[in-house]
Amino acid sequence: MEASSLPPCSITFLLLLLLTITVTVNADSLSRRALLANGLAATPPMGWNSWNHFNCFIDEKMIKETADALISTGLANLGYKFVNIDDCWAEISRDDKGNLVPKNSTFPSGLKALADYVHSKGLKLGIYSDAGYFTCSNKMPGSLGHEEQDAKTFASWGIDYLKYDNCNNDGSKPLVRYPVMTRALMNAGRPIFFSLCEWGDMHPALWGASVGNSWRTTNDIADNWDSMISRADQNEVYADYARPGGWNDPDMLEIGNGGMTKDEYIVHFSLWAVSKAPLLIGCDVRNVSKETMEIISNKEVIDVNQDKLGVQGKKVRMEGDLEVWAGALSGYRVAVVLLNRGAVRRVMTARWDDIGIPPSSTVIARDLWQHKTLKQRFVDILTATVDSHACKMYILKPIS
Ligand code: GAL
Known about the structure:
The chain is α/β, with parallel strands linked by helices. 30% of the residues lie in helices and 21% in strands. The strands form three sheets. The chain has an eight-stranded parallel beta sheet with strand order 7-6-5-4-3-2-1-8. The radius of gyration is 23 Å and the shape is elongated. The chain binds beta-D-galactopyranose. The site of beta-D-galactopyranose (GAL) has 11 residues, from loops.
């Protein structure tokens, strides 16, 4: 039956249905991007965080020295702009007006002065709180029930980033508690990157984009191969949920902390980059070795992470210990990681039909760790030998 021959009530019904669908789709995409307007997450955040190396042993002097070191090493110029203070920065009790108070023994000048210092270097200051009554260290109060007040305090100090943990809460779901802080931050009068840290407990990738700018998909990373690689695995499952405005977060970097080999740290950095993960350095950048610098300052790998397309790479082929990870980049390019998780050196192959390059295309390959454009042109496949617990990382660009 043609539309013109439908009874008027059916046409009205169809129009209403169409209108409902349009409104619902628009509302959904709006709410999924509620925080995009803060403009701080167009690409994954880059910076440093105190937790992996320093735990609770932090103070304003070392935070300032870290800011200085980010500048003097050139890391800031490469994009590492956030200086993020993790747990343990506040007194155990709030003041008589209910405000959080920086710990006098370690942050005597206060957070406003610290933010001013960090900003004067062209960097941004991040802080930590918790969607519970106490933070995970149990050494400072959380923000549950104080969201508006704390968000305003953070904004008044000039804070640019909030990591929000999940310990000691009231048993309600993160999806009940985290959006309260989302709204508080939106009303705080200052754009603040909102990093959700509920450890992947309630599949935050499914709802995180309407609540924050990144969401932890895993429990805490430790400085060893098994921990690192399993976090990459857990995070990969949610690849389709990452995009500009909101990112999956497999936890912070351990590179430079000493628990993995150089090749393993290269795998760590390559996987975090292709996964569009936050690149938050977790070592002491005041005393950074040449080897660590070589890894965390690899601009070609950083550029993959920061590519404007914002597509998280995925495992496109898994054959036992051998995995091919790939993700689209802007300019019709593709980032590829050939990862050997096994104990012996192996030959590995990237196939165009796995990684989304049209069949028979001729491709130029840039090796991002050798910093070399390979002389050979590749058609349909690229083959390489990859050491144990190591990877190769390429950008492939079809030329015909
Ligand atoms: C954990 C969190 C870590 C760190 C720690 C501080 O819950 O996952 O990244 O912030 O708390 O106590």
